[in-house]
Amino acid sequence: MKTRYTSLVSVKKNIMQKSEGTFKSANEILNNALSALKISFNALNDIETPLRGRMPEFLASRMLLDAQRELITHNEEWVEFAKRETESAKEQLKFDTIEYEKFNYLELQEIKEQIKRSKFLEAKELDEIALMTYGNKKR
Description:
Elements: H1 6-46, H2 55-138
Helix pairs in contact: 1-2
């Protein structure tokens, strides 16, 4: 049954589905960022510092450690950004879902009203037919 809310409900549903896709992709980006951060920490743990040797070896080791720490800092910032994006997408999805449910409810209420109205009209027509039939049988 078509109501005045039918087209609005389909638009709201499309918006909600788009928000779901955005949330899923934001969640995937967050998982990638967390994975990259974990890999960065593991790589930092795998770096061995020389216990003895020449100064260039110590400096090279130090530069490697500094570069890995910068990568960790970058990945931590990426994780924080991805968390904010995921939270934002979650809030948008929540809002869009509420909007969809609201108009879907209004559409269902209007459909119930239309069904109730049509049942009333059908009963009225059946009463008229019964009266006409009863009047014809009496004659």
